[in-house]
Amino acid sequence: MVDRAVPTNLPGPAPAGERMKIAFLGPFGTFCEQAVWQVAPTRSDLLPMPSVGQALAAVRRGEADRAVVPIENSVEGGVNATIDELSHGSSLVIVAEMLVPVAFAFGVLPGTKQEDIHAVGTHPHAWAQCRHWVEAHYPNVIHVPTASTAAAPEILTSVEDVPFQAVLCSKPSAKLFELEVLADDVADNPGAVTRFVMVSREGDIPPATGADKTTVQVRLPDNEAGALLTMLEQFSARGVNLSRIESRPSGNGLGSYSFSIDIEGHVREERIQAALVGLHRTCPEVKFLGSYPRVDGVRPNIRPGTTDEDFASARAWIEKILG
Amino acid sequence: MVDRAVPTNLPGPAPAGERMKIAFLGPFGTFCEQAVWQVAPTRSDLLPMPSVGQALAAVRRGEADRAVVPIENSVEGGVNATIDELSHGSSLVIVAEMLVPVAFAFGVLPGTKQEDIHAVGTHPHAWAQCRHWVEAHYPNVIHVPTASTAAAPEILTSVEDVPFQAVLCSKPSAKLFELEVLADDVADNPGAVTRFVMVSREGDIPPATGADKTTVQVRLPDNEAGALLTMLEQFSARGVNLSRIESRPSGNGLGSYSFSIDIEGHVREERIQAALVGLHRTCPEVKFLGSYPRVDGVRPNIRPGTTDEDFASARAWIEKILG
Amino acid sequence: MVDRAVPTNLPGPAPAGERMKIAFLGPFGTFCEQAVWQVAPTRSDLLPMPSVGQALAAVRRGEADRAVVPIENSVEGGVNATIDELSHGSSLVIVAEMLVPVAFAFGVLPGTKQEDIHAVGTHPHAWAQCRHWVEAHYPNVIHVPTASTAAAPEILTSVEDVPFQAVLCSKPSAKLFELEVLADDVADNPGAVTRFVMVSREGDIPPATGADKTTVQVRLPDNEAGALLTMLEQFSARGVNLSRIESRPSGNGLGSYSFSIDIEGHVREERIQAALVGLHRTCPEVKFLGSYPRVDGVRPNIRPGTTDEDFASARAWIEKILG
Amino acid sequence: MVDRAVPTNLPGPAPAGERMKIAFLGPFGTFCEQAVWQVAPTRSDLLPMPSVGQALAAVRRGEADRAVVPIENSVEGGVNATIDELSHGSSLVIVAEMLVPVAFAFGVLPGTKQEDIHAVGTHPHAWAQCRHWVEAHYPNVIHVPTASTAAAPEILTSVEDVPFQAVLCSKPSAKLFELEVLADDVADNPGAVTRFVMVSREGDIPPATGADKTTVQVRLPDNEAGALLTMLEQFSARGVNLSRIESRPSGNGLGSYSFSIDIEGHVREERIQAALVGLHRTCPEVKFLGSYPRVDGVRPNIRPGTTDEDFASARAWIEKILG
């Protein structure tokens, strides 16, 4: 349980007069905790959770007001667990997104010699983002997966006969566990970031800012040639751009896909509503997963003929024809 | 002025208790008069007009209740004068369409010898539909254009030193002027038909029958590569088919076009409205020229996801999201 | 038969040492003759023909080397007879295009009084381009169609009891027949032009200049929803733009269309060939009607990835894969 | 090193008279080994590798003739490591695909009591495919990740103070390590399968069978609205269907994607070549990753106008035009 002094502009209705409970992918010390701090209001209680599913379930069950979980990183792509968990069960919506630069500390127990390092403990995603660096500096070292990046230093410092001698974790974690840091800012891709989202219960839609994203999950008709093309035309017919599109197996066997999509715009804008109506009509399943401000503040290029006024004026024309 | 005994199901509001005045492309005896009879109500007065423009103008000025004019024939294509006149000036709308089989009588003054036929009088459209027949049967004969097919027998029987010895006209015309008919059913293309439309004033929209057409005139953005493709996608994104599309120069110089389009469906159907909204948003000019029953009664193939219910249900989903 | 002193860069193989025979839509004095002069070589014989069909037939039969006929005007649109005649029979190809500004002289027999003018003789296309001017200046005057604009002054000056008192014709014609010109430059649309084409026998393809057009006639599959969209995608998939697209009934009854299309580019360019291959594969009929320099010299905007080099390099990549 | 008696139809040139060396994602006992057995020739040596990257590197370095690695599973989606490794470095190509049904044994050390099970060791992908089953049968049990499914029983049986009491592994593995199997066929999704591929060196293209796949990796132009739509049109313009499309971050930051695509057809077919030429022209990077028989033997629906003959005939028509 952590308190915090700096007020922030938390999106969504804050529980008046009460402390906000925010579940997140724990433990403390992970990048996810850093993401929470970007948006948590003054009076928040942080609840570390062992998995994305459990963080989201805490919101679904009302045990937390919000959950913060990773959704995409610039090296590994979408975080499957998050995308899949959001699209199942009762509805949750994204109310904010946050970016956290991803660089790791390469830490060891103080006094460890370089030649004694045979294995590195860390989360598989972290390993994926550092393996070329490790191969270059510690050839022949193997990876031992841990449940989170923060779990690695915890295990290293507390378990006997631990099967690894070094860890890749966040810098605060390395400091917390008093490791000796042999390298700072380890990352195969400098500039790597992870995108996190803050999730709330259905019905919580922050107001449009002019620089927003809308996230949906769309299942395509099975085995229909051109179904993806047809789906994309629903966007292009309204001049709507996508900032992310990611395929996920829909769970009905190989060859059956859903798509997780970030749309440039807010569900309160007409062109977005028109595109969503098109999706709803033509796809077997569309799930709305929130409209929220873009963390980069980039405003979409709204093409001629797609402003709210253009839609209103076109509908007024039809009304006039119908008399 | 002609009266008529057989009641018909005239589309559009009939002037109660009064005779209906119907302007048409005259004179009497043309195919256009035959078209009028397909839809004219019991108590009608027919007003023959010397041009399409004047027939339409009679409706615009309130001197006629309806106008019947040709709009397309299966050999020559669109009737430019009609398409252009409809798209200019105050708005008129099509309320019915009619098909008239097109075959001509080849008539001469009684006693004319075959070797004396050096020229044939008829309207250029009729000539275009019979010229191969004439070349085959009367090689070296030339064409003398007349203002209508009915004008040809009238001139032949009334003017001295007339510059043609035979005419191509409708069979009723040939009979009316007591010509000797050397050949019946003359037509290069057996099965040729002309499509006529009945036009009323703006606001007159017959109810949807399930087998309807909607006619619009659309001007594309000038000099924009792919503008036609983009326009057609507004239809395909809503599963709407076209039964006719015809380009017309928009009058701004070569390379600038409008399109005259027949859409399968009625403006009271949601998918048609959605497509029209899309056109209105993205094209510099869209003119609604009527929704009316198809004369062939063919019902459109309504694709999954494009029924009125699909639209209503999609919009209800959006309303629910917006709370 | 007319000789001409100024040498020109006539496209296509000139009959060496011989005079070139050029059929055109006569008589002398029409705009078509003006078009011929824009491209005729020094030593040409001009053959005026009574119809477009006969001008083209003269080339097909070898009686003329070239034919010059109108193909499109900026008010009336495509010249149906030309488009249809080109697409039937043995193949002819367009080797050049020419633009002629269209403005008419309004001429009368010297001494005619304004109040005596009740009818105007001219070709229907000329009437279509001047009727608003006539209505404004001579209300209640009617139109008497003639076979060409040049036929009108000829009839006016030679026939007794002629049914019109004024003509609309080209200025050279008015001068030739010594008419009194009451108004010069008559045209509802200032800036109106007619586009003419010079036609040669199949196999005659002028070299690519970088600013060329290719003309084709394409028949779409009957009754196939989206067939036009699919056809246009064959162009857009290769970044090819169209400068003209015009529907023509294909002669199989209403609802069945061909399209006459001008493509920006030359058949010797890869992207044009790729688009034509796509059309040939997917449309029941494609007729090649020539590649020739654009009269306006406008070079197409060649999109990234569509140069000849891009095609060659992509094919080389495939060859390398195939080993 | 394993020998094998049953001859198989291994695709690709077999090293004559020599044993084939096949690297695979080890250790022995994983599903990947089962996949190898589906295609390995009689005389093969199997080389278990600790990672996908090392299995592929063995082929790149010539230490193995083939590698077998997982590429997609029906629950978790694409295997990122495989997709990414194939698209980097010198070229490898897929020469065969294999499906392995995925169901797990839930095993414990003989005599373990149900109430003593607090943690389950297995690979994260296996966990993802069984977690609902575990939650239902062993609520509150946590996951301890291992480097492979086969590593879990090995650790359970050989390490002291192992932090889990049960494992999810393949049935052969459970048997090999003499575990007590508490549940067979554990899988949240009955019918789950993993798709494996056999990889060879560039240039190795099995002959077309009529039921083939082609795999490519395509990078889209950055930040270009509609780039994905445009790319898909390169396929649809040639009637080519996709059986899988998966986005991967291209490593240039969030918002920049590559797509891993399985195409229905073989690179020796014309329509596939034409689509690949289109991709090569318009996308900044296209990597060919092999053409190989589909394991399910499904033949593509070849649309009218897209057979090899259609392409040949269209090209012949162009050749004739060019003279």
UniProtKB/TrEMBL annotation, chains A, B, C, D:
Provide this UniProt record's keywords sorted from A to Z.
Answer: Amino-acid biosynthesis, Aromatic amino acid biosynthesis, Lyase, Phenylalanine biosynthesis
One matching Pfam family: PDT
Example GO molecular function: prephenate dehydratase activity
Q: What reaction does this catalyse?
A: prephenate + H(+) = 3-phenylpyruvate + CO2 + H2O
Would the keyword Lyase be found if you checked this record's keyword annotation? Answer: yes
GO biological process terms, semicolon-separated: L-phenylalanine biosynthetic process
CDD domains with a match to the protein in the record: ACT_CM-PDT, PBP2_Aa-PDT_like
What positions are marked as the site Essential for prephenate dehydratase activity? 194
Q: What pathway does this protein act in?
A: Amino-acid biosynthesis; L-phenylalanine biosynthesis; phenylpyruvate from prephenate: step 1/1
Which Gene Ontology cellular-component terms appear in the entry? cytoplasm
- The residue ranges of the ACT domain are 216-293
Task: Return the EC number.
Answer: 4.2.1.51
Superkingdom of origin organism: Bacteria
What residues does the Prephenate dehydratase domain cover? Answer: 21-201
Q: What is this protein called?
A: Prephenate dehydratase
Q: Identify the taxonomic lineage of the organism of origin.
A: Bacteria, Bacillati, Actinomycetota, Actinomycetes, Actinomycetales
